[in-house]
Design goal:
The protein is of the alpha/beta class. It contains 11 helices and 14 strands. The strands form 4 sheets. It has an 8-stranded parallel beta sheet with strand order 3-14-13-12-11-10-5-4. A two-stranded antiparallel sheet has the order 1-2. Strands 6-9 form a two-stranded parallel ribbon. The structure holds flavin mononucleotide. The site of flavin mononucleotide has 21 residues, from β4 and α9. Belongs to the NADH:flavin oxidoreductase/NADH oxidase family. Keywords: Flavoprotein, FMN, NADP, Oxidoreductase. InterPro entries: Aldolase_TIM, OxRdtase_FMN_N, Oye-like. This is NADH:flavin oxidoreductase/NADH oxidase N-terminal domain-containing protein. Its cofactor is FMN.
């Protein structure tokens, strides 16, 4: 919530996020980088996350698979095997050694998948039997693109198994030393496939009304909260983002419906989630008034820490924090190309430009850990 003190808030004002004391509000957004070969975190990830850690800083990992059927991208880490947990420990230890706090983002792609990513080449699961339209293409491990697979709608009785996968993954995250987890319920992936009425065509208790469409997400949140504690759980939503046909007839109504249920859950358990993370931008044209209003409406409805992402510059981030529109801002592309983004923002120093071509390549160094720090540039 907005700080009631008269001091002007900036990206560098400390923030108490439940049990976590953040020294600033510049958050590393979840960023898929495809460097975890065969779904196992590598030494390169230790270096990458360590580079972006600051004392009291807050980091969210790239989307991470809670199970072997969640997969839809090459070389993304999982957190469902003992080996993955062991290797994540090294990443978390390096981040903690720098005094930063780190949550693991749990990501099930649902129908945004392909036979090459599914065990035995099977059909990915979703809320629906309808595939993503052929306009959108999926990235395959060999770098080529193809149409998305034909999904299979989960049977009602199968849904608790998916909820259980999230619960186990959250427990694994805590075993690996993570401070908490973020549930990826945005961007047209599995949970969003249940939330959005442009996709969810179910006739069971998980389809139709807003209450029914929110049920899957809320059951996951509930299960994870019971497993690891409310303060260690966060949720990311993007009600207005249409990525991979994830449309809704009433994005603001959907956002408010999710928030109403999260507020209620918080009230019932008597403690707050770590934060709600919202992607309010949908035009890609800068923060037009509609988007600002959209963000404010959700922010005012949510009773807890509010984080936003999407096209924020230093200035826009400062403004959003100062006006009380957000508590925290997560930065994606600018954090990819500026390992010392926090320092650069503090000094108002120029930023390195990001190289889109290496976002999803697999080299452990190039386009990953080789973006220069400020002091390297001045020598
Ligand atoms: C290369 C890349 C990978 C991303 N991977 C994820 C992801 O794994 N999970 C997620 O929720 N969002 C992901 N996003 C979205 C970012 O978290 C962020 O919201 C987005 O980049 C907008 O912020 P920006 O304008 O500061 O880049 C990704 C974005 C980029 C550019």
């Amino acid at each position: 919530m907005a700080d009631s003190s008269s001091k002007v808030l900036t990206l560098f004002s400390p923030y108490k996020m439940g049990k976590f004391n953040l020294s600033h509000r510049v958050v590393l957004a979840p960023l898929t980088r495809c460097r975890a070969l065969n779904q196992v975190p590598q030494p390169a990830l230790v270096e990458y996350y360590s580079q972006r850690s600051t004392p009291g800083g807050f980091l969210i990992t790239e989307g991470t698979w809670p199970s072997n059927t969640s997969v839809g991208f090459p070389h993304v880490p999982g957190i469902y095997t003992a080996e993955q947990v062991e290797e994540w420990k090294k990443v978390v230890d390096a981040v903690h050694a720098k005094g930063a706090i780190i949550f693991c983002q749990l990501w099930h792609v649902g129908r945004s998948s392909h036979g090459v990513y599914q065990p035995g080449g099977g059909s990915p699961v979703s809320s629906t039997n309808n595939p993503i339209s052929e306009r959108s293409k999926i990235l395959l491990p060999d770098g080529s693109h193809d149409t998305y697979a034909q999904p299979r709608a989960l049977e009602t009785h199968e849904i608790p198994q998916i909820v259980e996968q999230y619960r186990c993954a959250a427990l694994n995250a805590i075993r690996a030393g993570f401070d908490g987890i973020e549930i990826h319920a945005a961007h047209g992936y599995l949970i969003d496939q249940f939330l959005k009425d442009g996709i969810n065509d179910r006739t069971d208790e998980y389809g139709g009304s807003l209450a029914n469409r929110c049920k899957f997400l809320i059951q996951i949140v509930q299960a994870v909260v019971e497993a690891i504690g409310t303060e260690r759980v966060a949720v990311r939503i993007s009600p207005a983002i249409n990525h991979t046909d994830a449309t809704d007839s009433n994005p603001i109504g959907l956002g408010l419906a999710v928030i109403e249920r999260l507020n209620k859950l918080q009230l019932n358990v008597g403690s707050k989630l770590a934060y709600l993370h919202v992607m309010p931008r949908f035009s890609g044209q800068g923060l037009v008034e509609d988007e600002a209003q959209f963000m404010r409406t959700l922010r005012n409805a949510y009773e807890g820490t509010f984080m936003a992402a999407g096209g924020f510059t230093r200035e826009l981030g400062m403004e959003a924090v100062c006006s009380g529109d957000v508590d925290l801002v997560s930065f994606g592309r600018s954090f990819i190309s500026n390992p010392d983004l926090v320092l650069r923002f503090k000094l108002n120093a120029p930023l390195n430009k990001y190289i889109r071509e290496t976002f999803y390549t697999h080299d452990p160094v190039v386009g990953y850990t080789d973006y220069p720090f400020l002091n390297e540039q001045s020598v």
